[in-house]
């Protein structure tokens, strides 16, 4: 089986790494890929949103299955175009991917199908948004309606911060068109969790849960990023809660979309807050999470290629999915300036060779005359598998400490809450 992964981040590297372990996969391609993939995969420099070139590439190279990584590809209609050409592709169509592409659309679906989420209001007029914010009071959350690489969300502690967020998104257009419309949402308090599921329309098969670390600095301080690290499992959240999330959130959402005539096939990712009133949805994503994928896939015991094929063929029901009991943890090493403007082109040294237990998933890296250099905000996802979270954490940080590039920064507290929960 010849497989193409679209994208070039840590998530795609993890997908590639797992797919290569499948006995049915004979050749892997990744477009555009990154500096860590070349040894294993062919990485032609095709943009993830260049739909026509991607279709042509898949046809010319007789790709048997294409896996779409980034949300931008979904929203550009990659899946729709592949399906029109009769090419097997993993991911939801553009119409269904709007569950991520438009926060307002997601909120309306949740309302209609009784999926618990925070109170909200959508605005196209900044004045009206500010009036509503003053009525509601702080803390309050302001979000760009469209895609903003996980950064278009401002958790405002004060009214001033909230009003500034509206100004930035709607008037200064910090995130461009994504700020044409905004959503103002109730502030939810609790433990955060990411639960992804394979969905083929009817059948929903959850993966193991993970916890992301969105803010850039230790102790959840500083601006939000795409994610600075993750770990799995999340011992502070019980199995019973996870089942509740599947039954009360993921399944009704998948079925609701089916009823709307928007069959959902791919990964449905629920970002959740475990509030005192039960789990509530913060957001849905229409794809694998990044960096959640880097900790979830190392725990997958089954053949990923088999699962993805089953989803695209609508026979997920027939497949059983096994998970490893081990824990995993990923520390993201980022470039100077991230999540703002970043400094690139720095030489990376000391990346340890992958073992069974430690994997360094590349994100913003490239090769210059053979040398590995930084090429983006999130550079490496240093990941380890261990008997428990504490040992996974120690192993991941040991690898991190061996790696060097100028301006590198990372959080030192990835997994700290999970480790603490396990002890008490
Ligand atoms: P999102 O991109 O919607 O996942 O938001 C990014 C991060 O902002 C989330 O992971 C949360 O940590 C935080 N966040 C988003 N919405 C809320 C909310 N309603 N209440 C509290 N925190 C939130
Ligand atoms: N780590 C959050 C996301 O993938 O959106």
From TrEMBL:
The keyword Ribonucleoprotein does not apply. Its EC number is 6.3.4.13. Keywords: ATP-binding, Ligase, Manganese, Metal-binding, Nucleotide-binding, Purine biosynthesis. It is an enzyme of class 6 (ligase). SMART domains: GARS_A (SM01209), GARS_C (SM01210). It catalyses: 5-phospho-beta-D-ribosylamine + glycine + ATP = N(1)-(5-phospho-beta-D-ribosyl)glycinamide + ADP + phosphate + H(+). Its cofactor is Mn(2+); Mg(2+). One of its GO terms (molecular function) is metal ion binding. InterPro entries: ATP-grasp, ATP_grasp_subdomain_1, PreATP-grasp_dom_sf, PRibGlycinamid_synth_ATP-grasp, PRibGlycinamide_synth, PRibGlycinamide_synth_C-dom, PRibGlycinamide_synth_C_sf, PRibGlycinamide_synth_CS. Residues 107-313 form the ATP-grasp domain. One of its GO terms (biological process) is 'de novo' IMP biosynthetic process. Belongs to the GARS family. This is Phosphoribosylamine--glycine ligase. The lineage of its organism: Bacteria, Bacillati, Bacillota, Bacilli, Bacillales. The gene is purD.
């Amino acid at each position: 089986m010849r497989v193409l992964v679209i994208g070039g981040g840590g998530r795609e590297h993890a997908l590639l790494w797992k797919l290569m372990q499948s006995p049915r996969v004979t050749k892997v391609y990744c477009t555009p890929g990154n500096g860590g993939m070349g040894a294993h995969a062919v990485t032609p420099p095709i943009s993830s949103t260049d739909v026509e070139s991607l279709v042509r590439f898949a046809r010319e190279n007789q790709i048997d299955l294409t896996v779409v990584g980034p949300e931008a590809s979904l929203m550009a209609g990659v899946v729709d175009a592949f399906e029109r050409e009769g090419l097997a592709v993993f991911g939801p169509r553009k119409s269904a991917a709007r569950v991520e592409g438009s926060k307002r659309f997601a909120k309306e679906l949740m309302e209609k199908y009784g999926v618990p989420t925070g109170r909200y209001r959508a605005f196209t007029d900044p004045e009206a948004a500010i009036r509503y914010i003053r009525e509601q009071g702080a803390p309050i959350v302001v979000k760009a309606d469209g895609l903003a690489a996980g950064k278009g969300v401002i958790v405002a502690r004060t009214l001033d911060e909230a009003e500034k967020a509206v100004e930035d998104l709607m008037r200064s257009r910090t995130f461009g068109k994504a700020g044409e419309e905004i959503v103002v949402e109730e502030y939810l308090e609790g433990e955060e969790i990411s639960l992804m599921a394979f969905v083929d329309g009817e059948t929903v098969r959850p993966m193991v849960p993970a916890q992301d670390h969105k803010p850039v600095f230790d102790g959840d301080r500083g601006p939000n990023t795409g994610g600075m690290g993750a770990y799995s499992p999340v011992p502070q959240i019980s199995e019973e809660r996870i089942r509740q999330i599947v039954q009360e959130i993921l399944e009704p959402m998948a079925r609701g979309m089916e009823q709307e005539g928007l069959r959902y096939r791919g990964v449905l990712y629920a970002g959740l807050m475990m509030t005192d009133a039960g789990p509530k949805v913060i957001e849905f994503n229409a794809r694998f999470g990044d960096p959640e994928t880097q900790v979830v896939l190392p725990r997958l015991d089954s053949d990923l290629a088999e699962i993805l094929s089953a989803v695209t063929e609508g026979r997920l029901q027939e497949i059983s999915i096994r998970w490893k009991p081990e824990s995993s943890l990923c520390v993201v090493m980022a470039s100077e300036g991230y999540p703002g403007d970043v400094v690139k082109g720095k030489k990376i040294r000391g990346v340890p060779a992958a073992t069974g237990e430690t994997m360094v998933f590349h994100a913003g890296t490239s090769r210059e005359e053979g040398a590995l250099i930084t090429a983006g905000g999130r550079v490496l996802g240093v990941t380890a598998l261990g008997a428990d979270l504490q040992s996974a954490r120690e192993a991941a940080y040991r690898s991190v400490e061996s790696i060097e590039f100028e301006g590198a920064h990372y959080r030192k507290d990835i997994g700290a809450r999970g480790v603490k929960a396990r002890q008490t």
